[in-house]
Amino acid sequence: EVQLEESGGGLVQPGRSLRLSCRGSGFTFGDYAMSWVRQAPGKGLEWVGFIRRKGHGGTTENAASVKGRFTILRDDSKSTAYLQMNSLKTEDTAVYYCTRIVVALSAPKEVSNWFDPWGQGTLVTVSS
Amino acid sequence: SYDLTQPPSVSVSPGQTASITCSGNKLGNKYAYWYQQKPGQSPVLVIYQDTKRPSGIPERFSGSNSGNAATLTIRGTQATDEADYYCQAWDTITAVFGGGTKLTVL
What we know:
The complex is a heterodimer.
Chain A: E1 3-7, E2 10-12, E3 18-25, E4 33-39, E5 45-51, E6 60-62, E7 70-75, E8 80-85, E9 94-103, E10 113-118, E11 122-126
Parallel strand pairs in A: 2-11
Antiparallel strand pairs in A: 1-3, 3-8, 4-5, 4-9, 5-6, 7-8, 9-10, 9-11
Chain B: E1 9-12, E2 18-23, E3 33-37, E4 44-47, E5 61-66, E6 69-74, E7 83-91, E8 94-97, E9 101-105
Parallel strand pairs in B: 1-9
Antiparallel strand pairs in B: 2-6, 3-4, 3-7, 5-6, 7-8, 7-9
């Protein structure tokens, strides 16, 4: 069974840093891009960013709201992706979900990637 | 930036058909995806590539996408379908989610 498990959430003061981890199991972790999506309390889903698989350069893309503050990393030997969050703000308070990106190798439309499955999420609270 | 717009809420009677729309500029040129999120749970993919259902998703869930709107349709809606539903698309390398629709079965 394909599973993702996040860890590392908690209470942190504004301006401080926190690193979240996402461990995958049940699939070949290195064959997939991985993404982070967050959900503020009572709000909708917000994409945070993703990291490509090593075969595609292992590069990252981030949402404008976190660019320059958040970094996504991966260690395929540990089947783990990370979200390094620096200069945290109160508005970063959210449940952070890790999700695998599934890619369709051939499809009529240009971009055919979807998020499946999702982890259970880890809560990050930024407050003084 | 690219925006996806969903109605905040939709209500349906048990056994009836629920339709949730997702609007975006030329959305039909992109793939639309739909995720279901029940209270206290993580999102679950219910439709990918506009119309396809992942294994384990009931046949009563279907999707369409053309022009400027995608639609998630649930036929024979059950009480267990009560949840928040989010559409999603890609704006080149950026994933975009709609604001979500709360489906109430009453």
